[in-house]
Amino acid sequence: MMPAPQDEEMTRKLLEALKTCYDPEIPFNIVDLGLIYGLDVDKYGNVKIRMTVTSPGCPVGPWLIDEVKNACLSVPGVKRVDVDLVFEPLWTPRRMSEEAHRILGI
Amino acid sequence: MDAEENERGSSQNSGDLKIGHGRSGVTSIPKVQLAASVFFMFLAVLIGIFRLMNLHSINIYPIFLTALYQLHPNIMVYGFLAPIVMTERLVGMKTLHTGRIYSLSATLMVPATLIGLILQIGGFVSEQPVLISAGGGIIFLGLILFIILMFGLSMKTGLKLPFYLMILSVIPVADFALLSVRSIEVDGMPDSLLLMLFPILFILGERVELSRFVSGNLERYGKYVLSLGILVVLLTVMLANFQFSMNLSMMISLVTFALLFVAGGLTMFLEAKNLIHVSRSTSPLQKYVSKHVMVAYAWLMVGCAFGVAYSIQAPGFIYDAVIHSLMVGYVGSMLLAHGPVILPTVTGRKINQSTLTLIPLILILVSNVFRISGDFQLGGVIQAIVSFASGISGWLVLVAVLVFLRSLVFSKPLIQSGPVL
């Protein structure tokens, strides 16, 4: 569940930026895939993200985290990004957005 | 510009990369393992190049490489493919805290496989059977440790089908390690299949793993892929371990390739819709990956079809076309596809997407077309030209590898750089 944002405008911008990040083999951005478990930003521009990847055995994690950090740092005002890669709870397809479900037919 | 951005990124972001349940799990893989795998890859490619040239009467014999001609497939599989595949799977182990037995397996499996191979090479060159036998035993141990690790990952993640396929893929190659106590040389299609099924089925397992959330058909068809894989492995192990009459061997080989063709086709079907979506993406990396994967599947189908033709002894379809359609065409294209994604994990550096190119894929394609053409008896001047082209086609694979590795030159450190295994 997304924590209450300290700065709604900044959170919105960060989510927009995160929507430019894709797993290399899935046609949906990581927000619509449901990979972002939590996003927190303070007034100093420090961003904390809890996220997962679709499979714990998948080697895409470090690559994707770098994408996430780059995307967040492109938002004006962001000074620092901490990414916490977690596997509890494990990601399942149920976390995908309705559009993703509809297009993939699952 | 990139350098400036790197500087800025590094100084601007002192963020922490945490792996696992909020724990910082950043450790590095031994660089010596990585270096050894790359060395063995180049060694295997060079051996293959000169061996192929000699087969086509281009007689250049580098003494050291000539001595290792017979070990080309062993070095490629045990020296390069197995360590790379094992290393890739280490990520899951690190992130899931799978326990001491699994950590021990993860630590020892790659060194065991590499040490076993080195012993076998030493035993082969010095004609010491005891070294070959010891090497075979140690490789077998390394592969068993890998199975233990994947079993742990399967238990921890709850993913069964993909890991079952991956575990299944190790059985034939472990069987070959045991058989190498008797003879290290790859002798004919059954032995080749034992080695080839490792990357082929492992990659199918990875594709099934991906398709579990992009295909509503996985539950319906995924089990068929696994069942077909089990049958293929059983038949291959039977072929390699028992003496059959020629006719029966060819019949079993025919069924094996036909089943593998269907298993590969089903896996492709499972992710077809996703692949089409991804290929239309605006992301250079997504386009790059999807094109490589589609070409790889095409080679899998072609290689299996050649295998069927080989089994019924159709004119022209000889051993080399089958092997290299599968190993260079299918496995090579899949490795190129996943390289840009996996390399950051093992090197701590990310390839700049704008430097990704289809040139290595095209070179592999051209090389394989030359090589397969060389298998046909065309006669006359055309035969001589095609045979020469086939003989030198191995160099194109080496160029493809070098062009791909060139992209590493333009890579940049991950933010908070460093290997994360």
Question: Terminal Cα separation of chain A, in Å?
Answer: 23 Å
Percent in helix of chain A: 25-40%
The CATH topology of chain A: GMP Synthetase, Chain A, domain 3
Q: Biggest β-sheet of chain A: count, sense, barrel?
A: 3 strands, mixed
- Sheet bearing the most strands of chain B, described? 2 strands, antiparallel
Catalogue the unreliable spans of chain B: 1-27, 417-421
> What is the average of the pLDDT values of chain A?
85
Largest sheet of chain B, order of strands side by side?
2-3
Number of helices of chain B: 14
Overall body shape of chain A: globular
What is the total tally of β strands of chain B? 3
Explain what you see.
The complex is a heterodimer of chains A (106) and B (421). With 106 residues, chain A is an alpha+beta fold. Chain A has one domain (8-104): GMP Synthetase, Chain A, domain 3. In chain A, 33% of the residues lie in helices and 17% in strands. Chain A is globular and about 40 Å long. The model of chain A has no long low-confidence stretch (mean pLDDT 85). Chain B has a domain at 28-158. Chain B has 14 helices and three strands. Chain B has a two-stranded antiparallel sheet with strand order 2-3. The model of chain B is unreliable at 1-27 and 417-421 (pLDDT under 50). At the A-B interface, α3 and β3 of A face β1, α4, α6, α10 and α11 of B.
